[in-house]
Amino acid sequence: MRLFLLIAALLAFVARAPGADSYSANPGPYGVATLDATWHDAKRDRDVPVRIYYPKPLGLAAKPTCPVIIFSHGLGGSREGYAYLGEHWASCGYVSVHVQHHGSDREILHSLRPLKALRAAATDPAVATNRPLDISFAIDRLTVLNGDRSFPLHGRLDLARLGVAGHSYGAFTTMALAGARIPALGPEPRYRDPRIKAAIAMSTPTTQGNDTDAAFDGVSIPVFHMTGTKDELPGERRSTDTAPIVGNTKAAERLRPYQHTCHAPADLLVLKDGDHMVFSGRLTGSRPADKAFQDRVLASSTAFWDAWLRDDPSARRWLEDGAFAAVLGALGTFEHKPGT
Length: 340
Fold this sequence. Notes:
Elements: H1 2-16, E1 31-41, E2 46-56, E3 66-72, H2 83-91, E4 95-99, H3 114-123, H4 125-145, E5 157-167, H5 169-178, E6 198-202, E7 223-230, H6 256-260, E8 266-275, H7 290-309, H8 313-320, H9 323-328, E9 332-337
Parallel strand pairs: 3-4, 3-5, 5-6, 6-7, 7-8
Antiparallel strand pairs: 1-2, 2-4, 8-9
């Protein structure tokens, strides 16, 4: 029986990744399990809750190691959010670690004046700086735990193949880690983490100074940008020290990171009539096009991870040579540029 399971898992692994020549929203060959934890960063005296989605059974298929993705939620989110992404990526053989950022998470919605609390969180420089530090700390912690025999995923994390993704404020966080210069975080890209090999940024907000090539000179890893033609967020622009760090962003302005990235490969998915919350896996009030949009997000994001975290040339061809554009059809547009 065990031999049969081993052979089945090996066949599934070979069939799906790497080397897959087509992608869809169908789950990959693995079952999915979750692990919740709260890690403490003693240096900042700060707790960092996480939810880890991982493929099962990890013990089969010759005990493979898995590339790792770390996900950063938007303002008011939590580690429980964006489950459709974590579950899908784990089913395709990735470990997806969803970090919760205190100060800009769902806890602020429980205050007596939640809208005021949201505005305060969007204004606070400490909130902005702690977010990329949370992600880098999570990488540190995963590195330690990977060598700890008591950790359920001991020895299974391939941290040389590490990606980061995020939505909205999480995309702000992602771009800071990728090397973008964001004035709210200081004049230099000092939050860039060289351990990260690729990134996905969904609904990147407008920030002061991100409308020039110089703002993205420090981005040297592949980034997949995702947005929609109705991806707008109300709020005051950051024009003073008291204005929101992630404020009012028009849909056209979310194209800037892609347009101004010159030194690294970049992809751009624009969903026709896609709004800001379509990437979140909306908990309530879903809209008719949500599933079709999210299906394309799942397919294209998995191909992107396979291309850059598994070095799979067939995944790159599927994304860049027209196959994904055909699957996307009238739902949106896709662009790629190789960088220099």
